[in-house]
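notes to self, project folder thing:

trying the whole complex as one job this time. last attempt i did each chain seperately and stitching them together was a nightmare. two parts in total, labels are on each line so i dont mix them up again. if this works i'll redo the older ones the same way
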Amino acid sequence: KNEVEQSPQNLTAQEGEFITINCSYSVGISALHWLQQHPGGGIVSLFMLSSGKKKHGRLIATINIQEKHSSLHITASHPRDSAVYICAVTSGPGNQFYFGTGTSLTVIP
Amino acid sequence: NAGVTQTPKFQVLKTGQSMTLQCAQDMNHNSMYWYRQDPGMGLRLIYYSASEGTTDKGEVPNGYNVSRLNKREFSLRLESAAPSQTSVYFCASRGLGTGSLVVHFGNGTRLTVT
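result (full assembly):
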């Protein structure tokens, strides 16, 4: 049973395209996280949100608590956005992390 | 301010060999974690330490041991490495209070067991 499901698993886009990655979860959460992992690299936190919407540069994250769904949008995509994007939630009394399997994004020039 | 530092970055072991992965954080965080990442699977928790002096098993603890040496350092030991332990290992930490839900990861250790 996967508490966090992401789609698509793989995504290829042309530079400049608008990209959406989706995340659904099945547990009650205290927060939802979007993480970024570049090939061969470490993992960095992009967003943590518990309601509404957050924006950082060309990245926008939204969450719908009632529907248990979040989206990560990238506007005007660029090859440097190529990475794996991981959705995670914190849940339970210890705020345990549950991770999705990631979406591998490739942006072609 | 280095964040979370893991060593080594790469390691190749033969079956049966032992090694220790080191992790240190300089953010005064209470909670520290060891995860493994395998293709097609999400990050899986091996062990965690909610505070100095405590450690608990995660989802996949078999074949591993940990030590929370002090508040800064949390090491992961493979006593007798097996090919199934070939993976990328990430250490992470998290604090208390405002922003405590934000997790900080190290850059990973890529381990191959032959």
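what i see at first glance: Residues 81 and 107 of chain A are 7 Å apart (CA to CA).
need to look closer tmrw
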